[in-house]
Amino acid sequence: MTSSPSRCAEPARRGLTVVLAGAAAALLAACGSAGGGAVGGAGSAHAAAASGTPAVTAPATTVAPTMTTPPPPVPLPGWNAVRVTPTAVAVQQRSVTLADGSTVTLALFKAGTYRLVLHAGSTDPATAGVTLPADGESVVSAAERPLLVGAFNGGFKTSTGAGGVEIGGHVLAPLQPGRASVVIDAQGRARVGVYGQTVPVAGDPAVSIRQNLTPLVEGGALAAGIGNVPSWGATIGGRLAVARSALGQDPAGDLIFAGSMSALPADIGSALIDAGATTAMELDINPEWVQLDLASTPGGALSAAIPGQYRPATQFLSGWTRDFFTVLATS
Q: How far apart are CA 295 and CA 51, in angstroms?
C-alpha cells in the first residue's frame, strides 16, 4: 500500500511558485514546524533553492501612532477656576461658610504661573527717602498692569512691631528672627515660613520680605496660641470676630490667600489647612485693610473677591497708603 504525498510536500514536488499570504502563511508555518524549520528560516531557503524560486518576504506593517489631545486643566475639587492657562488652572477660588454664616474667601495662585511683588504704601512702611524700584512703590506700575492677575493687602503697620519689611533690597523696618515671613526672590518666587529657620533658603537671596507675627499655621497645624485672640492683633471695639486675612503655602509651592470680613484667627487658619496649606502667616486685620482683587486674564478687569470688602477693586491701581502685594502672570 503506497501512502499519498503530504499536502506540505506537494508545492515543492510540482515546482510551483508559492506566494504566501493569509491562510497560506499559516499552512507553511505548520509545515515548517512539522519539518523542524522556521518560516523564512533555513527550511524555507532550502525549499526555495530546490525549486529555483527566490524566497518572498512579506513587507513589514507600520502602525501609525495614536495622537491624543491632553485634557484641559481643571480646578481642584470644590474650587472655581478664575484663570486657566493651557497647562494649569493658574488662579482658582473657593469660599468656606462658617458656623455663624460668615464666609472665608480663598484664592490659590499656582506655583510657576505667577510672580509676586511687594509694594510699599504711601505712608507705611516709611521709605525715609529710599528710592524704591518702580514695582515697589505705592501704586501698581505701568509695567505691571498688562500682567496683573491679582492683588491683596499686606501686614500690620510697622509701628506695631509685628515684623520687618524689605522691598527691592531696601530694609524699611528691621527684620526679626522667628517671625512668620513671606520671602520673595529675584524671579518673584515666594516662600512662606519662619525667618531664620525655614526662610530664606540658602543660595536663593531674597529681594523682598514681609513679616507679621508668629506663624498662624506651622507644620500643617494651627498655632498653639490660636485661641488667644487678642494676641493676633488689636481689633476695632475689641471684637473677636473681625475682618482678617492670611497667606499660606502648600507643599507644591502654591500660594493661598484667605480673607474674611468676620472671622477668628482659628477660622482663617483652619480654612487654609483645609485648602492644603502647611504653613501660613496672618496678614492685616480690620475692615479698612482686608482686600483681595482678581482678574480672569492678565491685565483684565479686577473684581473684588471678598464679599463686603470696603475698598474697590481698583484701589491698588490708583495707589494706597499701606503695603500690598501684586500677582503677575508669567505663563
A: 81
Q: Which of 165, 162, 183 is CA-nearest to residue 128?
A: 165
CB 209 within 8 A of CB 186: no
The 10s digit of each residue's pLDDT in 281-295 is 999 999 999 999 999
Would you state the pLDDT for residue 70? 83
Q: Which three cell numbers stand for residue 107?
A: 484664592
Torsion of CA 252, 285, 304, 209, to 10 degrees: -50
> Identity (one letter) of the amino acid at 309?
Q
| H helices, E strands: number in the chain | 5, 18
Distance CA 112, CA 275 (A): 19
Contact indicator for 212, 180 with CB cutoff of 8 Å: yes
Pick 54 or 78 by higher pLDDT.
78
- The amino acid present at 60, given as its one-letter code, is A
Sequential DSSP letters for 12-63: HHHT------THHHHHHHHHHHHHT--TTSHHHHHHHHHHT-----PPPPPP
Any alpha helices (H) in the chain, and if so which ranges?
10-14, 23-35, 42-51, 265-274, 315-318
Residues 6 or more apart whose CB falls under 8 angstroms from that of 60 comprise none
pLDDT at 4 over 60: no
Cα separation, 286 vs 243, in Å, equals: 5
Chain centroid to CA 213: how far? 26
